[in-house]
Write a structure and sequence with these properties.
Strand order of the largest sheet: 14-11-12-13-26-25-24-18-22
Helix content: 10-25%
Shape: elongated
Largest sheet: 9 strands, antiparallel
Number of strands: 26
Radius of gyration: 25 Å
Strand content: 35-45%
Number of helices: 7
Length: about 375
């Protein structure tokens, strides 16, 4: 194989494809990137058996061929090359020369036959939506994806398509995040995408608002994002019935500036840490939200204005969980709906049903 390509484009492609490369594996090929030169393109693929990322680069192919190169070492080498073009050449013994100007590396690659073949997904339902919309839906729900293995299906987000509405839901046992968006699609489907996959998809979308295509089969999903193709295994299992989990009624409703409440909780939370765990106590009164906490190193209190209807109530919260929900709002004002001191807090936008966050309270000692 012999190929000449642009350094900047190669570096970007290697960085993105490396996100699907296994950091440590008993299969050495999974720690590498498969490079395949043919025609006038160089194809790069990373795959850890759960997530695969592939992209094509325009290149000058002197001799077609394939090679696997260790992702981390290859990335470090090309980033440090002095010139704008890089030549990669490998022989039948897998000895690979990477050259740019006077700088040259010689490393031993791996046999491309050792790289696992990406699964073919066969018949698949095709969906499409704008990149900005998909990124927003991912970013507003990803924080609530479970990190424990207690219920593996909750380590992903549910994509529920019904009646022309796409709903994305994440839940971890302490909170729930839900985001809705109208989608021009007649079919109904429901599938769970791993949180790791969604995180990488959000990064690949970046700030570009291009149309994203999704091909969904019974076990796999493929995202087509610009020049990249992301393949992921879907999670299996019974996801939480999110419709039943959302409280239907509330006795108190508060409208508050999202920024003001985030700032207030951040001030109080300075006294809270992993070693100094303490609930955030919040009292919702007629026109104010009073926040406080007490830990071994001191006490903190703060008050902000709000508009409230219904009963006054005092509740305890994990400050991080409450902050995550408020930061994900993306609206100037948030509406907090409460059903009592031990009922979940519902956070919704003021004038729409675009998102909904549930945060479970913690029991205060006085109760």
């Amino acid at each position: 194989m012999k190929v000449i390509c642009n350094k900047e484009k190669l570096c970007e492609a290697v960085a993105n494809v490396s996100r699907a490369v296994a950091s440590k594996s008993t299969i050495l090929a999974l720690e590498g990137i498969l490079l395949k030169a043919e025609g006038s393109t160089l194809t790069l693929t990373g795959y850890d058996l759960e997530l695969g990322i592939t992209t094509l680069l325009e290149a000058e192919v002197g001799e077609p061929g394939e090679i696997i190169l260790t992702a981390r070492l290859f990335s470090d080498m090309i980033r440090r090359m002095p010139y704008e073009t890089i030549t990669i050449e490998s022989d039948q013994k897998l000895l690979t020369h990477i050259v740019s100007g006077a700088a040259e590396y010689t490393i031993l690659g791996l046999d491309p036959q050792e790289f696992p073949e990406l699964p073919a997904i066969g018949e698949a339902a095709l969906l499409s939506l704008q990149g900005e919309t998909l990124k927003s839906m991912i970013d507003q729900t990803l924080f609530a994806v479970a990190v424990s293995d207690a219920k593996p299906v909750h380590k992903g987000s549910l994509f529920d398509l019904k009646d022309g509405m796409l709903t994305v839901v994440s839940v971890d046992g302490y909170r729930l995040a839900l985001r809705r968006e109208a989608l021009n699609a007649e079919e109904e489907s429901s599938f769970v995408i791993p949180g790791k996959t969604l995180s990488e998809v959000s990064k690949l979308i970046g700030g570009e608002d291009k149309k994203i295509e999704l091909s969904v089969s019974s076990k796999y999903i493929i995202f087509r994002i610009g020049g990249y193709q992301v393949l992921s295994r879907l999670l299996e299992g019974e996801f939480l019935d999110y419709r039943a989990a959302v409280p239907k009624q509330h006795t108190t409703e508060i409208t508050v500036s999202t920024r003001s409440m985030v700032d207030s909780i951040e001030r109080i939370s300075l006294l809270i840490s992993d070693k100094l765990r303490s609930p955030l106590k919040i009292r919702f009164t007629d026109s104010h939200i009073q926040s406080s906490c007490s830990t071994a190193i001191g006490k903190a209190n703060d008050t902000i204005a709000c508009q409230m209807t219904g009963d006054e109530v005092e509740m305890g919260f994990n400050s991080k969980y409450l902050l995550d929900a408020l930061r994900a709002c993306e609206t100037d004002e948030a509406v907090l709906q409460l059903g009592g001191p031990l009922a979940p807090m519902k956070v919704v936008p003021k004038d729409s049903e675009a998102f909904l966050f549930l945060v479970l309270p913690v029991r205060l000692k006085s109760e």
